[in-house]
Please model this.
Amino acid sequence: MANKKPFIAMLLAGGQGSRLGALTKHIAKPAVSFGGKYRIIDFALSNCANSHIDTVGVLTQYRPYLLNTYIGTGSSWDLDSHDGGVAILPPYATETGGQWYAGTADAIYQNLDYINLYDPDYVIILSGDHIYRMDYRKMLRTHIDNQADLTIAVMTVPWEEAPRLGILAADETGKIYDFEEKPKQPKSNLASMGIYIFSKKVLEDSLIADSRDPDSEHDFGKNIIPTLLSQGKRLFVHRFEGFWKDVGTIPSFHETSMDLLEAHPQFDIMAEDFPILTKDDSLPPHYVGPKGSVEHAFVGNGSIVLGQVEHSIISNGCTVGEGATVTDSILLPNVTVEKGAVVTRAIVGDGATVKAGAVFGSADTNVPIAVVGDDAVVE
Amino acid sequence: MDRVIGLIAANFETRGMGELTEDRTIGSLPYGGNYRVIDFPLSNMVNSGINTIGLITPYKYRSIIDHVGAGKAWDLDRKNGGLFVLPGSVFGVHSENSHFLLRDIRRNVIYLERSPAPYILVTAANVISHMDYRPLIMEHIRSGADITMAYNTCDRDEPHRLGVNVENGRVTAFKPNPLKYEDAMLDTFVISRDLLMKIIEWYSAIDYLDFFEAIEGDLDKMDIRAWKYEGYARQMFTSRDYFEYSMEVLNLDVAGELFSRERPISTKAAESAPAKYLDGAKVRNSMVASGSVIEGEVDHSILFRGVKIGKGAVVRNSIIMQKAVIEPGAVVENVILDKSQTVKAGSVIKGTGDTTFIKA
Model:
């Protein structure tokens, strides 16, 4: 029996993220690189570390290999503790057979033993898909103050985005009285951020009941939350004001990345009071050559810039050859842009090469952002 | 390489470094924008498969112990072997050219006694290289020599190094003050544990004897071989060495060799975002570490982590250590700026490069 942990986290990192196309062909969405040196999952893991949560179960399923080795012992996020720490939780088999995680709720259900090992009072369910900074302790405060069964982090979103999201209605005390997953005609613009704090008993009971329902899709948004609401449980919102972004589509990935480059960005990745932690490779500083130029850009360690970089993110370990130009683009780690190549409004996958003299992407905003996947070669 | 343990002598005489080492050792001097000098021998040993390493620390040990910690960055926080921090001294060094004080090795003889490994690789903390020690060790084992020492040919006058005469692969004499094109020791050698223990015993009466002085009289009696290293290697003794050799990493060939992705040089991780270039950034022929924010001009310089270059500021031919701030409009030329220093807006500092070190 492990020591009791009053508050633990379960991080859902199994999503494929198919809307990111080529970027998630070989890896799960949470493992996709972001911001020059991070991976998307770093943001949720850093939030855990910065919220002093020291026990985190990471649920993986889709192409988990890279994610598993990336997280490793969790030491990059100070989660390599003897007591708790990070645990990778892939689907597993028992004496009655094994099965894939059928949905978000099923993934947690199948790991109730892990949760019970720590005998927590509260469990926070996170997804590894979002870019944000959040102190989960504040949300736990809301949960405890309301004596809630379930607390859902919410934020107001533009009305036009509401039909894509889980939309809630709450009274002035924050008590939820309505919830709709992806409503065609939203009644509110208060959206769920996919961050849930459950009182552990409620979580366990609802997951067990859900597991026995043959009609359920075993999804928190579609099944668990509506059921709890219909049972008259105490569901409350925790209002979050700050930056939160799902970078699950190419346009939003590109736009969110470009915003980092502003002098005063909406999301300041450099802010040191709530640091984003990541697995740091040992790389030397980047080098800008005698004929290189860089403006309005992020450049990661280990990169060599001999050409022109304007308004772009050059991730760790990239090379921009002489006479090459990279504009309004994101080079994921270890990309080579050879001599004289022109890359414009593009996302170039990890380890890809843009051959000498090649032209990739277009400045025309009517043309979709050019994307090429990991290890690809653009002639 | 279970048969070899490492010993790094970081207890160096540092008078030539002046103020640069007033509060730190040569080993903990920032180097290459991201590293400390000690990272090179430490990483090279680990990359050569040596997993038990003793680090003889000097009197001013705070900065170096802070840096190496339990050795986690080099995967040396292990149950078997790992990093051993061994106390040393620089009290009363009688010769400016002392390399390895036997006294400091003797003080830590228990480290040698405990290990079952028959060979010891000894190196100095002030060698910048990407040396693979395995060929040196293999050659030593193959030849059955008493000691095998790495050397190279000076490409300038290097008065602080120890010159060496090599005939038919044997070390026949040491000589001070090697000139350009002459051979000199790289203060890196392999010796059997038993022989090192014997040498320590023989000379235990003489307190401040240097290892090379100790064996100098026995060069004709012992089988001491020389192993030539052809790669990039620099040994730093003075602030001029520090400035010049630091600037050499702006040469892509040098950087490519030192920071090769094969056998990478590791360092203590520090979290910082990629470097950010804003409006007005003009950077040429420079190395810039993560966490830096640049709004001014930087030419032929090295910026360590978290450096801020304000709008319209100009930095030329300088080394700017971590978290230093160059305020808007300031001009900094030929200067080594210590960490966390601020150059006030509009001020102008022009130095002579190697000797102009600005610290608190």
User: Anything to note?
Assistant: The radius of gyration of chain A is 22 Å. Chain A touches chain B through 42 residues (CB under 8 Å).
